[in-house]
Design a protein that fits this description.
Rossmann fold, 494 residues, 12% strand, 4-stranded parallel β-sheet, alpha/beta
Length: 494
């Protein structure tokens, strides 16, 4: 059985981490508790009942969960995970679309979970020592926010790295949480510049540990076990006797959420898994490159953590569609058009702000997927809304400045052209040869540039237990977390 996540114990570092946890009253949640909040002790729930969702309090580690109540303060947990259902009046397709809502995580984004999945193994093994090490979080925005937040909760110093052209909201928040913020040249499309900065830090600072979401298998483990599980729960809660889980669509990003798709394909064997990317940077579809404005999805490479062999389709999304729909979904005139002309229910209109730019792109992937496979009202397609429109208010303002104030006429154009007018172009079902082509693109980034080996690259493709071995490490990690918590004794003092 492959064990890709290193769980080797560093006793000195572990002793320091245990002492740090005692000093800061830190209890680390297990993966099992993130799947099922019923397992969380009542004493912790009591403390959460008077703690804000974004408060910098270690107890909020227990809010790294899809089941959080949709409340900014004092919320506990609900039976069904948070999701938005996109009706046919919005999507233009008969199938049901479920978009899991990341807004109700601390930081307003599910990336706080992925970063936890990367940091927690290093803490409970002592491989990361907060008395000496600094945690470096390279990202196009949300992951470094989640990493900086988790670092703060866990008593660790952090360095956030993100492109200079990401939204103003990201930088303003990071300046208050991260120990250091580094802006690299460019925009969403400039991932290599982020990687280059991490190598510079490795060469010049002995105390840094890089948590690169594009290669950290803790990202895979968390999304497989937690996000995949939550999507299945959401589907089971809304399915009818004739329902069929048709598939899931996720924009590439770090490819962490693609592992949620791996979980779903195991639960629903006839479903398909699609990966999305920006049309302006068609790396997966055409081995291409370019620049785009769908914040949070990365590009120009295939993430090391992407199980490409299990991916059935590539879908390219025009970033013009996402940008224009951001205004449609978040303006008074847009809402008026949706309500009075398109006949969209008021309850749905109120929920559209739960979709950030990448969430909109994910929904568009689902629409193209549904049109391509001619899905019916019995079919259900799932995706995630990584964050919400709260993180893009400055982008809406910029679009208004560039294109003029939003009007009913503009809303009609955007609805017909950028939503219901979406076509099944710039997408492809992947044959065996297609998948291997995409997988082989990893060589140029990860073997030539980032120090990976050809042997492990081949193992990802040929070894049947490579990915399942990672998924099954959740049990090993939870065992170490429970032992860590027992040694700190913090839980007994609550």
């Amino acid at each position: 059985m492959n064990k890709t996540i290193d769980l080797t114990i560093n006793r000195e570092g572990l002793a320091h981490n245990i002492q740090k946890a005692k000093e800061n009253n830190i209890i680390i949640p297990t993966i099992a508790q993130m799947q099922n909040p019923d397992l969380i002790p009542e004493k912790i729930k009591e403390k959460l009942s008077h703690t804000g969702l974004w408060d910098v309090d270690p107890v909020n580690l227990f809010r790294i969960n899809w089941h959080n109540e949709a409340k900014e303060s004092g919320g506990l947990y609900q039976k069904t995970p948070n999701y938005v259902e996109i009706p046919s009046s919005v999507s233009g397709v008969p199938c049901r679309i479920l978009a899991m809502s990341g807004k109700w995580f601390p930081t307003g984004c599910h990336k706080v979970g992925a970063s936890f999945g990367c940091l927690a193994p290093r803490l409970v093994t002592g491989q990361f020592d907060p008395t000496y090490n600094k945690a470096v979080w390279p990202s196009t925005g949300n992951y470094c926010r989640g990493g900086a937040y988790n670092s703060k909760l866990l008593g660790c110093d952090s360095i956030a790295i993100l492109p200079a052209e990401m939204s103003r909201e990201r930088f303003e928040w990071l300046s208050k949480i991260a120990g250091e913020v580094i802006a690299t040249p460019g925009c969403e499309s400039n991932v290599k510049e982020i990687f280059d900065k991490t190598w510079e830090l490795r060469r010049t600072r002995e105390d840094v540990i890089i948590f690169n979401q594009f290669e950290e298998m803790g990202n895979v483990l968390w999304h497989y076990q937690v996000t995949g599980h939550a999507i299945a729960e959401a589907y089971e809660s809304i399915k009818t006797p004739t329902s069929r889980f048709a598939g899931a669509c996720f924009t590439s990003g770090s490819a962490g959420t693609m592992s949620a798709g791996d979980y779903l394909k195991e639960q629903y064997p006839y479903s398909k898994l699609a990966v999305g990317e920006a049309l302006q940077c068609p790396t997966l579809l055409e081995n291409g490159f370019g620049g785009h404005r769908i914040e949070g999805i990365g590009d120009k490479h295939v993430p090391w953590v992407h199980n490409v062999r299990n991916t059935d389709m590539v879908i390219d999304i025009d970033d013009e569609d996402s940008q224009n729909l951001l205004r449609l979904f978040n303006s008074e005139e847009g809402h008026k058009y949706l309500r009075e002309v398109a006949g969209v229910p008021e309850a749905t209109i109120e929920q559209l702000s739960l979709l950030g730019i990448s969430g909109i792109a994910n929904v568009l992937c689902c629409i193209k997927f549904a049109k391509y496979y001619e899905l019916t009202g019995d079919d259900v397609v799932a995706t995630v809304a990584t964050d919400s429109a709260v993180m893009y208010e400055s982008r809406v303002k910029e679009l208004n400045e560039q294109q003029g104030n939003y009007s009913l006429l503009t809303a009609a154009r955007d609805f017909s052209e950028h939503l219901h007018g979406i076509r099944t172009d710039n997408m492809a079902e992947l044959t065996y040869a297609d998948r291997k082509r995409v997988h082989n693109l990893k060589y140029y980034t990860w073997v030539e540039q980032q120090g990976k080996t050809v042997e492990e690259l081949n193992a990802q493709w040929y070894d049947h237990d490579y990915w399942t071995g990672i998924h099954e490490q959740a049990k090993d990690l939870d065992k170490l977390i429970n032992e860590f918590n027992a040694r700190t004794g913090v839980a007994e003092k609550i």
